[in-house]
């Protein structure tokens, strides 16, 4: 019983670890996408020389060839470093390791080179590109796992470094012993255990079986070839390279056979592998903007049968939604072509057609008849139809994941202790999200201004607070607690703040012109950062004049979130505003130093109690005392005490007893658009 429990525990741990490896591999692939993009574009470009050989020596095409060699030639090294980086990052936080993650990933890449040398020495060849992709994944995982074990092994820790102040030096020195042992262990493991690299080719040959040189591969053997090719591509290994390494033994490209490797390339794989040209076509009709954009990039390479962008970029690798069509569609293409040829509708000739020859042209040349092109087109359309429902499911999962991620990020950013200033520059998801939000803040079209009524205890509306709303085109409604702090850090709050003032004044005009409606004072939230702009107060005064707003109907709410720098000039400006008749409110008033500092520095007409405090007012005697003393403080300086986040009747009664003057919250109404606010006021106003 106990041992069964132990085994199941071990199994769960192994599963969790496997999941972590898979996710590191996936993220590793995503991170090297720019390199794959560059390589795919260079390859697409250099393919032009296959059709115009005279261009081969032109410097532009030579450069594209070099770029392709550099990117694809070192892809395995980049991938190894990238996977190791993803994995060690997780372990660093899981085990509190003091390691430089970049150095660890570089060491993993160096180890891969050593392992490749080891194998190259045996075989007289050396390659760090697509052929080594599977090796790259294995070495990255193996290296990082072993490195973490050595790193956590106490006797290998150089304890004298514990008191070393030079951070980078001590961190690097700490990594020296594990950094020596790990590559040696990996190399030794390869030398004694995993040395046999040709196992992939041998396995492939074994699965396909013996081939008659005169006949070439049979239909069943071709089906197996296609399945192997697809399975390899699905895990990120260049399937065609594996197959082409054994192509001669399979007599795939022998002259005189009726079904050669070229036919499979151009009638089953269309687009590179997996008949993905059909997938790229339907991507153009995707609901997700990012997928439609992606289709634009992937179309040209796909036409030349270069499918790395689709495989790694969409991605198809390890994508459980697209696995089935990716496996089945080329099989369908293959069987359909067999069927059509066996009926004699299309016959193939011995044409020498390059693998990168585009759709239709290759079909026409291989059949020496337009029937070949029509067959290709038919398979391609069929592929689009087959991929469509699977793509929909993939997109639904993409949407679900994005929603979860966004709500997680929103929660994180909205937290009171969140430091936007710090997060904004971080290279992680939160940093990227903040910067993306900041970019989109330039577009003011999606902003709206809502108003939350403020009432007295008898239920009469006495004013309203203007609150900004933003419907982000991609992320949907985002709360101000997310984007206002970002706008404060980037400085965009100045432009947004003036938009709020102007929109609010326009709405006040509308209220004023509406007969049978008693205009109410409106409070605008002003971030302390806005006051640092030298023109803020003068702009405010200008807009008051332009919109002919009665300053007595205007209140400015200053929050405690960001510290207000109380310069002499600002104190003077606040006094002037107050002389004009504008009220000043201190928002989210707590027991903080800043709140009290404000009270003694400039005229304050309203104190708004921090909503968090109100939540506990019924239950906590201490909070009741605090609110009561705030009331005394406010009334002592001739100011009003306002309670926000009033959600229940009990709270309202208690707050009234403790001396609050006005109330705002869910109990009465959440923020409303202007027409609804006006309707609310009409039914909750005493027309004295
Ligand atoms: P705030 O000024 O303290 O605004 C009150 C917040 O409490 C609003 O959140 C409001 O929707 C929410 N609220 C109202 N009733 C209830 C209730 O019964 N329960 C709870 N839990 N919450 C309630 P919102 O609109 O998300 O705004 C958050 C903060 O963003 C505001 O806090 C304010 O500091 C800032 N903000 C909003 N609009 C603007 C703006 O136009 N300019 C500037 N600078 N800041 C703004
Ligand atoms: Mg406020
Ligand atoms: Mg507040």
How would you characterize this protein structure?
The chain has 688 residues and is α/β, with parallel strands linked by helices. It folds into three domains: 2-31 and 74-197, no CATH class; 206-403, no CATH class; 439-683, Alpha-Beta Barrel (TIM Barrel). It has 32 helices and nine strands. Strands 1, 2, 3, 4, 5, 6, 7, 8 and 9 form a nine-stranded mixed β-sheet that branches. A hairpin with a 5-residue loop joins strand 1 and strand 2. Helix 2 packs antiparallel against helix 4 (59-73). The protein starts with a helix and ends in a 5-residue tail after the last helix. The mean pLDDT is 88. Bound molecules: ligand C2E and magnesium ion (MG) (2 copies). Ligand C2E is lined by residues 452, 467-468, 479-481, 484, 497, 500, 525-527, 557, 559, 587-588, 611, 644-645, 647, 665-666, 670-671.
Provide the structure class. alpha/beta
Taken from the alpha-carbon principal axes, the silhouette is elongated
The overall average pLDDT, rounded, is 88
Helix tally? 32
Q: Tally the beta strands.
A: 9
> What's the CATH topology name of the largest domain?
TIM Barrel
Write down the Rg: 34 Å
Given as residue ranges, the uncertain stretches (5+ residues, pLDDT < 50) are none
CATH architecture of the largest domain: Alpha-Beta Barrel
Name the ligand types. Answer: ligand C2E, magnesium ion
Report the top-level CATH class of the largest domain: Alpha Beta
- Estimate what percentage of residues fall within beta strands: 5-15%
């Amino acid at each position: 019983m106990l041992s069964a429990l132990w085994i199941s525990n071990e199994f769960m741990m192994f599963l969790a670890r496997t999941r972590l490896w898979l996710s590191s591999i996936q993220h590793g692939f995503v991170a090297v996408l720019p390199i794959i993009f560059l390589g795919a574009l260079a390859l697409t470009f250099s393919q032009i020389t296959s059709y115009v050989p005279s261009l081969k020596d032109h410097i532009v095409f030579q450069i594209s060839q070099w770029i392709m060699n550099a990117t694809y030639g070192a892809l395995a090294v980049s991938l190894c470093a990238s996977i190791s980086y993803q994995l060690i990052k997780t372990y660093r936080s899981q085990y509190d390791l003091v390691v430089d993650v970049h150095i660890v990933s570089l060491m993993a890449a160096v180890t891969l080179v050593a392992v490749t040398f080891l194998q190259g020495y045996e075989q007289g060849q050396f390659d760090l590109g697509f052929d080594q992709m599977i090796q790259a994944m294995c070495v990255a995982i193996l290296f990082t796992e072993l490195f973490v074990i050595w790193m956590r092994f106490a006797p290998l820790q150089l304890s004298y470094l514990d008191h070393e102040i030079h951070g980078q030096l001590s961190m690097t020195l700490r990594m020296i012993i594990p950094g020596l042992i790990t590559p040696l262990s990996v190399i030794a493991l390869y030398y004694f255990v995993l040395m046999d690299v040709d196992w992939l080719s041998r396995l492939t040959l074994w699965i396909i079986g013996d081939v008659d040189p005169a006949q070439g591969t049979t239909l069943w053997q071709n089906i197996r070839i296609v399945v192997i090719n697809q399975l390899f591509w699905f895990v990120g290994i260049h399937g065609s390279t594996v197959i082409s390494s054994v192509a001669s033994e399979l007599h795939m490209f022998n002259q005189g056979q009726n079904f050669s490797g070229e036919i499979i390339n151009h009638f089953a794989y269309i687009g590179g592998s997996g008949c993905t040209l059909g997938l790229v076509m339907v991507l153009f009709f995707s609901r997700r903007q990012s997928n439609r954009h992606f289709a634009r990039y992937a179309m040209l390479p796909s036409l030349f049968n270069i499918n790395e962008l689709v495989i790694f970029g969409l991605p198809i690798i390890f994508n459980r939604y697209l696995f089935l069509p990716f496996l089945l569609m080329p099989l369908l293409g293959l069987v359909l072509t067999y069927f059509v040829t066996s009926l004699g509708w299309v016959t193939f000739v011995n044409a020498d057609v390059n693998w990168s020859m585009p759709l239709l042209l290759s079909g026409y040349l291989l059949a020496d008849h337009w029937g070949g092109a029509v067959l290709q087109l038919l398979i391609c359309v069929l592929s689009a139809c087959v991929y469509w429902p699977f793509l929909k499911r993939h997109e639904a999962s993409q949407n679900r994941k994005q929603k979860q991620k966004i709500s997680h990020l929103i929660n994180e950013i909205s937290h009171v202790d969140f430091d936007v200033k710090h997060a904004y520059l971080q290279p992680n998801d939160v940093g990227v999200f903040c910067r993306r939000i900041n970019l989109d803040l330039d577009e003011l079209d999606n902003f709206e201004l809502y108003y939350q009524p403020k009432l007295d205890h008898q239920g009469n509306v006495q004013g309203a607070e203007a609150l900004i709303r933003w419907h982000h085109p991609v992320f949907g409604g985002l709360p101000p607690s997310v984007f206002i702090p970002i706008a404060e850090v980037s400085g965009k709050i100045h432009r947004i703040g003036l938009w709020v003032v102007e929109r609010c004044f326009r709405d006040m005009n509308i209220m004023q012109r509406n007969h049978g409606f008693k205009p109410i004072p409106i409070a605008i939230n002003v971030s302390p950062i806005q006051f640092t702009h030298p023109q803020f107060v003068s702009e405010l005064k200008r807009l008051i004049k332009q919109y002919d707003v009665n300053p007595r109907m205007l209140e400015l709410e200053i929050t405690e979130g960001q510290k207000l720098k109380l310069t002499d000039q600002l104190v003077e400006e606040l006094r002037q505003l107050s002389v004009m008749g504008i009220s000043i409110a201190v928002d989210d008033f707590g027991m903080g130093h800043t709140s009290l500092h404000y009270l003694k520095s400039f005229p304050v007409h309203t104190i708004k109690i921090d909503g968090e405090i109100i939540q506990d007012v019924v239950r906590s005697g201490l909070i009741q005392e605090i609110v009561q003393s705030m009331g005394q403080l406010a009334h002592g300086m001739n100011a009003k005490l306002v309670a926000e986040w009033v959600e229940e009747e009990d709270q309202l009664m208690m707050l009234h007893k403790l001396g609050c003057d006005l109330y705002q919250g869910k109990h009465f109404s959440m923020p409303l658009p202007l027409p609804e606010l006006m309707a609310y006021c009409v039914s909750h106003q005493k027309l004295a």
